[in-house]
Amino acid sequence: MKKKNLVLxxxxxxxxxxxxxxxxxxxxxxxxxxxxxTDGMDTSNTTLDGNTVRIxxxxxxxxxxxxxxVTSGTVNEYNVTLKLGNSNFTFSRGSRSSGWSxxxxxxxxxxxxxxxxxxxxxxxxxxLHQVATITLNVDSGVESTETCSISIxxxxxxTNPENPTCEIVDGKxxxxxxxxxxxxxxxxxxxxxxxxxxGSFLPYAVIIGGIVVAVGLYMFTKKNKIYHI
Length: 229
Hints:
24% helix; globular; 12 strands; 4-stranded antiparallel beta sheet
């Protein structure tokens, strides 16, 4: 009886010890903003809570700011699609905030759609964080009072099965999803043996291993009990 209680105690200890590793999943929301994003800002200028945001025509300085609101855990990936609601406003260029790497590209068939796929090795925690700045082109002749609505949708990690993965072809660098990236990003993703993405499976492996050990001890104890009868 004492041995059985010992095994049950071991199982409970393993569950308690590794529970935080499973429960530490990040939650929050991605959003767009008409103003620079800072923690604690007034979110009425963002798409959070279903707000409608319109970007004013500021000529060459017409910009959309992209961010994430983290409510728990740590966010390491940012994969969104930005849709511009006025065809007179189109993608010009994108810049990533400090700590973020990846690609910001215009859709191949629709210049009012921008795909943003970024990662942050250290991640960001609870609060409002600016992730990228999108500069827009505004057609000449457009009235200065004309505005553009925006919408943000979250997407999965992009893949391109037609492209090579973690290879350099014709001077172009491709990451582990077949997405074209810079040389620096290629080296970080493909040549870094300590890819942070691989670590996400470690807690589950440890938990499974612990459960297997606990069950093994229980079966061993039960078997010995039978032999002593």
